[in-house]
Design brief:
Elements: H1 3-19, H2 21-38, E1 46-48, E2 54-56, H3 73-149, E3 153-156, E4 159-163, H4 170-179, E5 183-184, H5 190-197, E6 203-208, E7 217-218, E8 241-246, E9 255-259, E10 265-271
Parallel strand pairs: 6-10
Antiparallel strand pairs: 1-2, 3-4, 4-10, 5-10, 6-7, 6-8, 8-9
Keywords: Coiled coil, Lectin
Pfam family, one: Lectin_C
GO molecular function: carbohydrate binding
Length: about 270
């Protein structure tokens, strides 16, 4: 055979197969059926009657795993099981997604609470440090006052007072107070005025109008608002009296203006 003849033969065979595919498939089925029938007599569940008919000794429902239509029941069961598994998997994934979102929300809330607690902790730490500094400062002041108390300091309300045992001018008296870490007394209320009156001494106080005549100010620069002047005082006698004193009498209205160079006892005040 030539090469062209071989090709022609192959083409004719292909056309025959494609044109007679149903016939070929039927023949294959018949051959498989004959092969199966040859083994039926070996099956203990099969029997043959006197007429040559073959009977299957199985329940009328048919062979196990096959329904009346010939469909494999195990295949359908597998398909149903796969579907059930797929649905269960979807439900599981949905639940896992919800739980993940809940956990994410809880985590975010915990982060916020942690940040708030951290901020509160920092604020409390600052407040604690501030209180500690104030406590230490108060302890220093208390220690200083305790030591000063044995050197002539007297406590009253929220201040300590030092009453001098010698006399000096207003300027030198103030300088002595400043050397002690204090200043000439500033009288803020009637209770303090009464306390000083009971000392029964003429004392320099921290009051002056040296800057502007008639405008009395305390040594801290605040203007005089409540005064306890004696009658007809201040009078600026000879226009030279620019410093204030507590005059020695039992009346709480006992302030007087004096010549600043006059030598008097003085009283220092140190606030706590």
């Amino acid at each position: 055979y030539t090469e062209s003849q071989i090709k022609q033969s192959k083409m004719e065979m292909s056309e025959y197969i494609y044109g007679n595919v149903d016939i070929i498939l039927d023949e294959n089925r018949n051959r498989r059926a004959e092969s199966e029938n040859d083994h039926i007599y070996d099956d203990p569940h099969m029997s043959q009657d006197s007429g040559g008919n073959i009977w299957e000794e199985v329940p009328s429902m048919g062979r196990p795993g096959v329904d009346s239509s010939g469909m494999d029941i195990s295949g359908r069961r597998s398909s149903r099981q796969a579907t059930v598994c797929w649905v269960l998997l979807c439900v599981l994934l949905l639940n896992m997604t919800k739980e993940k979102n809940q956990l994410k929300t809880s985590y975010t809330n915990l982060i916020k609470e942690r940040d708030q607690l951290e901020t509160s902790y920092n604020n409390l730490t600052k407040e604690r440090n501030q209180i500690k500094r104030e406590r230490d400062e108060l302890q220093k002041i208390f220690s200083a006052f305790k030591q000063a108390g044995t050197a002539g300091w007297t406590p009253f309300q929220s201040s300590w007072y030092y009453i001098s045992s010698e006399v000096k001018s207003w300027e030198h008296s103030r300088q002595d107070c400043m050397n002690r870490g204090a200043d000439l007394v500033i009288i803020n209320n009637i209770r303090e005025q009464t306390f000083l009156t009971k000392l029964k001494k003429s004392l320099w106080i921290g009051l002056t109008d040296k800057d502007i005549e008639g405008t009395w100010k305390w040594v801290d620069g605040t203007p005089l608002t409540t005064a306890y002047w004696m009658t007809k005082q201040p009078d600026n006698f000879k226009e030279e009296e620019h410093c204030g004193e507590i005059h020695n009498n039992n009346n709480v209205l006992n302030w007087n203006d004096m010549l600043c160079a006059t030598k008097l006892n003085w009283i220092c005040e140190q606030e706590t």
